[in-house]
DNA sequence: TACACATCCGTTTTT
DNA sequence: CGGATGTGTA
């Protein structure tokens, strides 16, 4: 334990802590009257959740009820009253982002003492920490590698190949999710029910492959994400002495997003909580939206049975949304049967009703939302405070396209993640081998990247040697680079590679790790490979490599950096510029925006057909919770919309409005007329129509001749896109002093790649892209090629 | 080995 | 349609 803990123990006597009045703390600890300042402003329920520190406690925190505040204040309170030192608190979150936020906020409350909170983190980061301390009990050595999903799949592919399993019929991905599922449920290979073990490949290999996979992991000294929980759980179960040690250590436990815990996590917590029994779980059964990846809502529904004598506190005062938004969301979620039941209320009285809007098709939906956004922006609202929340990521494109045309800055949250990009993973593989040569998966990844003439056959031979002699692939390669088992070309290349690694490893001692990274990327020919690549992404990849090296600078050494990225696959996005957010409803959990758009509420899309097919009523309820999460993200304004026609896989489909729309309580909802129908438009929510000069020759019923004609044409698949003419005068003037482009110039666009300008109108360019075809974009989105 | 062509498939996602 | 992945050919 660090000396920080002792500092904290002292505080209250003489050393003032930054945010908390030491006198108050001391007084509190001694049971006197003075009120610690951090309790100010909490409502009675919140306060109870903070002050009920001992014994099991479940806090049911509805959306927008100040959950994070309660969580952080509670931890601060435990520390401030001297009940525990920072190192004796276990605080678990699901995401790194949540962990970071909690750490920051506690830091703001109690100052430097957070430094001592070594056990605040995600389930996985805490799992690694424990597993590194007891690796040998799990058949690993302490420097074990952590595999990400990609590595996992590659390992499984090798196994499948060895068993002659047809990867077409039985994809490695599917096996991976099967195994993940078992791990989520806390099942080691021996414990997988026989019926399920027989569920994969010819002759029911599932269980067998799982067992072999686990063995392989030990051989290559690696753990996958599931193991970070499962192996720790196994250690706890099989080594009571170790379990006791942690039970003693963790005097107070706090779990965020309890509704998202899976069985393994639940068992893990329950074992630990048998020590001091001071476990506080915070969650909201109505926001459980991760059932499809193993979360068990049951954990939260069963809490009082699992922890006899548990207190339950409900936080039902909402500080986020208007009564209308809250009413709409509550009315909807009330249709769910399996829930603990909460009634959110607010003291606010102002607010617009939730708008429901019908659109002719998806393009119109995107167009109208784009216009709304421009209008709000003109009124002075920040784009950062607006979001479009979709059910599935393919829906994002329509909005991106539209915003590119309009020149509305946007950010997509949940795209391909930084550390998952191929070039970043390649670069990391090089560095990992410098740090630990025996990382077979990393070595295999780059042995022929860039191409150096070491083909599959050579690699297979190395594998054979490695296996036969029980050594790592790298060692086998090292040996073979000196014999004549390989063709001359491959052997020379291999020798050169091995020599390079030896050289780099020598250097690693003497130079900063960022410099080492640059040298490795340079000398390995990896950077050059991308420099010679002429695809539109190449430049971006080179930029990513630069960014990677830069981000390494934030860490003291290579090992620290590698450990960090193994667990944190994402890199934080800057929120500096003012941009509209486009993300999935899943990705939006825990966030809030002034204005929220919820497009695509159509049967089959939302609720998603697949959810319904696979999970039936439970699936529907989870979708409904997702809808609830979506609506409750909004502070002041929520607009739900659906399109009557949608192009799915390039086929036009006639869509029905989502059943969730019917379930919204009428009193909180206003149905806006179709923007394109005759009459009545413009009276919806915000002022005058912007579409006077373009209407469609049919109303919003399903039976007009126009509708039927249009439908007929669309089903024939030769419909013209219903994109309206752009209304010049309404364009927001932007980038007036931007660089001017001329017809015929070759330009680069970060989304569409390279293209040639075919027309210029003011700041709007029409560009014929090599890959993406013809698009209209604003010139500021483009650079000269 | 590299590129062209074919084929398949189309939720949600964290660690 | 479009991307990801795989097969086939030069």
Automatic annotation (TrEMBL):
Keywords of this protein's UniProt record, alphabetized?
ATP-binding, DNA-binding, Helicase, Hydrolase, Isomerase, Nucleotide-binding
Gene Ontology annotations of biological process type: recombinational repair
Which Enzyme Commission number(s) are on file for it? 5.6.2.4
Listed transmembrane segments:
none
According to the UniProt record, where is the region Disordered? 1-22
Q: Listed GO molecular functions? A: 3'-5' DNA helicase activity; ATP binding; ATP hydrolysis activity; DNA binding
> What region holds the UvrD-like helicase C-terminal domain?
323-590
UniProt record similarity statement = Belongs to the helicase family. UvrD subfamily.
Q: What is this protein called?
A: DNA 3'-5' helicase
Q: Which organism is it from?
A: Aestuariivirga litoralis
């Amino acid at each position: 334990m660090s000396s920080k803990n002792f500092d904290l123990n002292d505080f209250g006597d003489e050393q003032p802590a930054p945010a908390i009045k030491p006198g108050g703390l001391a007084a509190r600890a001694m049971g006197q009257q003075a009120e610690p300042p951090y309790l100010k402003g909490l409502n009675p329920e919140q306060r109870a959740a903070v002050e009920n520190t001992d014994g099991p406690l479940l806090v049911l925190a509805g959306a927008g009820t100040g959950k994070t505040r309660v969580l952080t204040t509670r931890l601060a309170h435990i520390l401030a009253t001297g009940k525990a030192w920072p190192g004796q608190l276990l605080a678990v979150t699901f995401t790194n982002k949540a962990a970071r936020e909690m750490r920051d906020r506690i830091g703001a409350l109690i100052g430097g003492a957070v430094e001592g909170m070594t056990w605040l983190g995600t389930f996985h980061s805490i799992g690694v920490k424990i597993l590194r301390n007891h690796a040998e009990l799990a058949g690993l050595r302490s420097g074990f590698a952590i595999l990400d999903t990609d590595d996992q799949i590659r390992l499984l592919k090798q196994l499948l190949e060895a068993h002659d399993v047809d990867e077409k019929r039985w994809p490695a991905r599917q096996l991976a999710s099967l195994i993940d599922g078992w791990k989520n449920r806390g099942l080691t290979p021996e414990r997988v029910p026989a019926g399920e073990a027989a569920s994969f490949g010819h002759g029911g290999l599932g269980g067998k492959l799982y067992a072999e996979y686990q063995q392989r992991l030990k051989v290559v000294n690696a753990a996958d994400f599931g193991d970070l929980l499962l192996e720790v759980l196994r250690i706890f179960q099989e080594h009571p002495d170790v379990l006791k040690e942690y039970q003693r250590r963790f005097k107070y436990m706090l779990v965020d997003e309890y509704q998202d815990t899976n069985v393994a996590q639940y068992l893990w917590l329950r074992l630990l909580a048998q020590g001091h029994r001071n476990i506080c779980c915070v969650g909201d059964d109505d926001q459980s939206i991760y059932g499809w990846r193993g979360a068990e809502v049951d954990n939260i529904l069963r809490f009082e049975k699992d922890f006899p004598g548990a207190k339950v506190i409900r936080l039902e005062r909402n500080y986020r949304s208007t009564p209308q938004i809250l009413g709409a969301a509550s009315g909807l979620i009330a249709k769910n049967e399996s829930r603990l039941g909460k009634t959110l209320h607010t003291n606010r009285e102002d607010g617009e009703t939730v708008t429901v809007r019908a659109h002719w098709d998806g393009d119109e939906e995107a167009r109208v939302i784009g216009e709304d956004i421009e209008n709000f922006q003109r009124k002075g609202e920040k784009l950062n405070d607006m979001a479009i929340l979709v059910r599935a990521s393919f829906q994002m494109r329509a909005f991106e396209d539209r915003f590119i045309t309009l020149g509305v800055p946007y950010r997509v949250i949940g795209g391909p993640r930084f550390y998952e990009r191929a070039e970043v993973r390649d670069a990391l593989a090089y560095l990992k081998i410098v740090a630990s040569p025996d990382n077979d998966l990393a070595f295999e990844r780059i042995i022929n990247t860039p191409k150096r003439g070491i083909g599959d056959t050579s690699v297979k031979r190395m594998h054979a040697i490695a296996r036969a002699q029980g050594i790592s692939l790298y060692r086998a390669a090292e040996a073979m680079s000196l014999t004549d088992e390989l063709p001359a070309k491959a052997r020379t290349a291999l020798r050169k590679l091995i020599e390079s690694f030896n050289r780099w490893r020598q250097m690693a001692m003497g130079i900063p790790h960022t410099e080492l990274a640059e040298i490795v990327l340079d000398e390995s020919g990896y950077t050059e490979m991308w420099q010679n690549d002429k695809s539109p992404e190449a430049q971006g990849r080179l930029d990513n490599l630069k960014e990677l090296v830069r981000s390494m600078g934030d860490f003291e050494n290579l090992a620290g950096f590698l450990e960090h990225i193994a667990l944190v696959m994402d890199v934080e996005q800057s929120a500096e510029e003012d941009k509209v957010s486009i993300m999935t409803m899943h990705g939006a959990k825990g966030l809030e925006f002034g204005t929220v758009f919820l497009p695509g509420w159509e049967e089959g899309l939302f609720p998603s057909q697949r959810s319904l097919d696979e999970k039936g009523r439970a699936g529907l309820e989870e979708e409904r919770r997702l809808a609830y999460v979506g609506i409750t993200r909004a502070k002041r304004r929520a607009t739900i919309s659906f399109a009557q026609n949608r192009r799915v896989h390039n086929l036009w489909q006639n869509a029905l409005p989502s059943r969730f729309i019917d379930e919204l309580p009428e009193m909180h909802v206003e149905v806006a007329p179709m923007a394109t129908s005759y009459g009545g438009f413009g009276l919806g929510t915000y002022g005058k129509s912007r579409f006077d000069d373009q209407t469609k020759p049919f109303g919003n019923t399903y039976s007009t001749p126009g509708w039927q004609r249009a439908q007929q044409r669309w089903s024939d698949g030769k419909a013209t896109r219903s994109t309206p003419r752009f209304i010049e005068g309404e364009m927001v003037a932007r980038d007036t002093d931007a660089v001017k482009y001329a017809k015929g110039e070759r330009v680069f666009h970060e989304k569409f790649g390279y293209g040639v300008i075919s027309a210029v109108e003011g700041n709007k360019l029409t560009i014929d892209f090599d890959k993406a075809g013809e698009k209209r974009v604003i010139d500021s989105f483009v650079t000269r090629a």
